[in-house]
Amino acid sequence: MSFINYSSREINCKLVYYGPGLGGKTTNLQYIYEKTNPQARGKMISLATETERTLFFDFLPLSLGTIRGFRVRFHLYTVPGQVFYDASRKLILKGADGVVFVADSQEERTEANIESLENMYQHLKEHGYDPNKIPLVIQYNKRDLSNAAPVAELKKLLNPNGLQDFEAVATKGDGVFDTLKAVAKLVLQELKSGT
Amino acid sequence: MGAPGMIMYEEEFNQISAVLEKLVRDANSRMVFLVDKNGQLIAAAGETENMDTTSLASLTAGNIAATGGLAKLLGEKEFSILFHEGERDNLHINLIGQRVILVVIFDDRSTLGLVRLRVKKSSEELSQIFDRLMKKAEAEATGGQASPFAEITDEDIENLFRE
Q1: What is the CATH number of the domain that holds A35?
Q2: Which residues of chain B have a CB within 8 Å of the CB of A79?
Q3: A1/B149 CB distance under 8 A
Q4: What is the mean pLDDT of the segment spanning A23-27?
Q5: According to DSSP H, which parts of chain A are helical?
Q6: pLDDT beyond 50 at B162
Q7: Which helix (H) or strand (E) holds A63?
Q8: Phi/psi class of residue A68: alpha, beta or left (left: φ > 0; alpha: ψ in -120 to 50)?
């Protein structure tokens, strides 16, 4: 749910990184944080367990610049990927203006990817979204691993509707900003169309 | 799409700021924040200079969301007031009209009783302002008032990512 503030001339949007556990959602945010000019970003908050698994969410505020005199700000969130944190995951997804689904390319994570994607569509519907209309991009992460499934196969399973998708190695930053830019653009286009 | 976005106009923003500033004084508090349920800061008043207000807003919304989840588990509609007691500072958080979250930070110059009393009055005033705000936004949307973003071009969007 975007927030347009005429008084401070700001527009705020919420982006959510969704996906199976250990898929690299937090790593995406960490890379963005490291590579962004300190003036353009706020503090990154991670509510994680002692073993650095996301417990509730990660949060990173970014300022992208101005459009027509309005400062454009994006609030990036990740959900906890582990199956049993489902209630928290649903809470974080609420109010999202755009979603990135971070898939784990490893063969053995195929089932986890599908399960997480279905779980996301389910939660989106429960929040009143039309899952086919919300700005959504797919990222196939961990492309550098030897057990990564072929992209064609992942596309067939996770992206039958041909949404924008990106190959990534989040630990090195490959594809991270391409993914962010793509979803941010979709969100702004959605605002433009006023729906 | 899900819930429509929130729009804040200058007039209502000034009214909200005035209510918050009065609350800071009347409750002898250090600072007061108004946050939307999705974690965006709407307005703040008091000693906010050294406070990371963006983080505060997002964590408060997460807190309210988690507490709301707990309420549902117990068959409650919501827990409308949260109170966190610290060694120095205390946090009073309450939901206003299912829409926005009012956060008051106070130390030993004030008391929980005083804060609760003042928050009640301010919440009513804020609730009325938000009712007006929603109606205004609706009227502008249906009255054909285009959003400032209706006119942005693909090039504007591209430019944002060019640097």
Answers
A1: 3.40.50.300
A2: none
A3: no
A4: 97
A5: 25-35, 86-93, 110-126, 151-158, 176-193
A6: yes
A7: strand A54-67
A8: left
3-state secondary structure of B152: coil
Q: What CA–CA distance (Å, rounded) separates A88 from A79?
A: 8
**Is the per-residue pLDDT at B2 higher than 50?**
no
- DSSP states of B32-58: EEEEETTS-EEEEEES-TTS-HHHHHH
Residue in A with minimal Cα distance to B65: A91
Indicate if the pLDDT at residue B3 is higher than 90.
Answer: no
Quote the pTM value.
0.92
Residue boundaries of the structural domains of chain B: 10-140
Residue B1 binned pLDDT confidence (cut-offs 50, 70, 90): very low
Q: CA–CA separation, B60 vs A58, rounded Å?
A: 14
C-alpha distance from B4 to closest chain A C-alpha (Å): 6
How many domains, chain A?
1
Whether domain B10-140 has CATH 3.30.450.30:
yes
Let me know: does A150 contact A103? Beta carbons within 8 Å.
no
CA distances from residue B36 to A70, A117, A182, B90 in whole angstroms, order as listed: 19, 28, 26, 21
Residue A161 in tokens: 């509707």
Tell me the pLDDT tens digit for each residue of A88-136: 999 999 999 999 999 999 999 999 999 999 999 999 999 999 999 999 9
